[in-house]
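Note to self: keep these together.
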Amino acid sequence: MEEVSPQRQGSGDDEGTDRINALSDGVFAIAITLLVLNIGVPDDIPADRVAQDLPGRLDELIPELLSYAISFLVIGSYWMAHRAIFQEIRAVDRGLMWLNILFLMFVAFLPFPTALLDEYPNDQLPVALYAGSLAVARLPLTAIWWYATHNRRLVHEHLNARTVRWHRIRGLGIPLIFLLSIGVSFISLTTAKLTWVLLFVIDIVVLEINRSR
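Structure:
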């Protein structure tokens, strides 16, 4: 395997980040699209019973629709965080590329715990696995930011310390809340799920406050 010299590892142009963003956007798009496949369309209703039975069968899909919406919004927020981080990165090296591959691996995995939660919405283990998967998926993105900003070797010179600190705190806070919801799930599954929704709302509000400063 060809060794990459330090001079070639970090590229000062946009080619490296453009290729990473293109690959990442593709993985995000596929992961989000796969989520809808977890929603099963009722197809075993007799033709003469559709009007009577279909409303009830659609009600049964509410847990699947809820987990779909949560996963869609979480993956979307991870995509926006990824975009915001790579807007500040001016160069890439092998370590950064591998961290991004690790992040994408966990993003591509998210449709599985979503399907598991759809199938067993009232069991604690699928809820815990789902929250754990969301937390673990966020950590490599946090690692990307810490790696790129270490000694400011891969980020733009104009990046201020406040932005560096903000992304670091957000990158640790989000997975921490998902992990805390696992503990909550032992007490109340509904509260654990509401924690995920509340986290998304709070994250949007905090982002808007940060942008307005």
